[in-house]
Amino acid sequence: MRHQQSLTMRHQHSRTMRHQHGFTMRHQQSLTMRHQHSLTMRHQHSLTMRHQHGFTMRHQHSLTMRHQHSLTMRHQQSLTMRHQHSLTMRHQHSLTMRHQQSLTMRHQQSLNMRHQHSLTMRHQHGFTMRHQHSLTMRHQHSLTMRHQQSLTMRHQHSLTMRHQHSLTMRHQQSLTMRHQQSLTMRHQHSLTMRHQHSLTMRHQQSLTMRHKQSLTMRHQHSVTMRHQQSLTMRHQQSLTMRHQHSLTMRHQHSLTMRHQQSLTMRHQQSLTMRHQHSLTMRHQQSLTMRHQQSLTMRHKQSLTMRHQHSVTMRHQQSLTMRHQHSRTMRHQHSLTMRHQQSLTMRQKHGFTMRHQHSLTMRHQHSLTMRHQQSLTMRHQHSLTMRHQHSLTMRHQHGFTMRHQQSLIMRHQQSLTM
Q1: Where does the record place Basic residues bias (predicted)?
Q2: Lowest-pLDDT range, 59-73, 160-174, 183-197, 266-280?
Q3: 52 with 177, same domain?
């Protein structure tokens, strides 16, 4: 008895420090499985082994070999009754107190099959104490970061859609007959197919090489938030939906009537069904694939490993504070003007007003979604590894820290009672 008591008191403090955040998986499983067999004839032997389990491996092996057959039911009951009150007063928040209280008959009878099953389901995730502590810290951090990301993504999506819609409406209204007639078919094709691609790729690559090592995650976040706020304040107050709708309908109708009458047979024959189909399918496939990849958890991981580093980094690192305003104003203006003019020249031939409006809206939606994806990927890359790891850990862990502490306190109260 003296040796058992001295070993117990020597290891209570170390067990308290190691296990103050909860049970380890091995102790929880052993406690649960041993209480499940509390009504059998071998329960006293399992109580002896579980009482010895709280010591270190050196003392555990020694006590197991020397005292396995000597710690009988009488020894367990006397040890429990002699030390239960003092351990309750001094160590009611520690693992030792819960372990000692579990040896009493009241605790053995209070654990029914429902409580045992709930303990088994709650504590079947095998984490060591070091892993559990790191998961707790990362889980609390990931909750904050994920909440901020969700607010940022929803706000960014709303701002992006409204901003692109306002840009589309304003640029469609600003297209006049002078701009539409000045661009020949060859000039429109070269600007659309060659200059747009070269301008986009060279601009992205030059900005990528220039700023790839200079941008930090904090700077990207501040740039994004300032840019979104400036775009919000600048564009949300500029155009109303009624003015946009009326100007769009009148402008589209006038453009349709003028271009359908002024186009020659050479322009009409140049736009074949293959080119129209390829243009439509290319934007539609781009919209579908990128939108699905950005919203699917499985495709997020593949984008992170294969595609996100090459494409996302160029978008992330190109939209800096120095170049974001000029690039947005200059590049979006040129792309929107040239896309609208090329779409106007191409799509007005042989199409009705409904088909033309449908193609225009699909193309604008594709531009909107690509711009939205670039903004989304810029935030996604910075926290993808931590965010997805924390999501995986949270899904496996199943409980937040507050829930886990409440379960521990409820379990402790049931053990005390």
Answers
A1: 10-20
A2: 59-73
A3: no
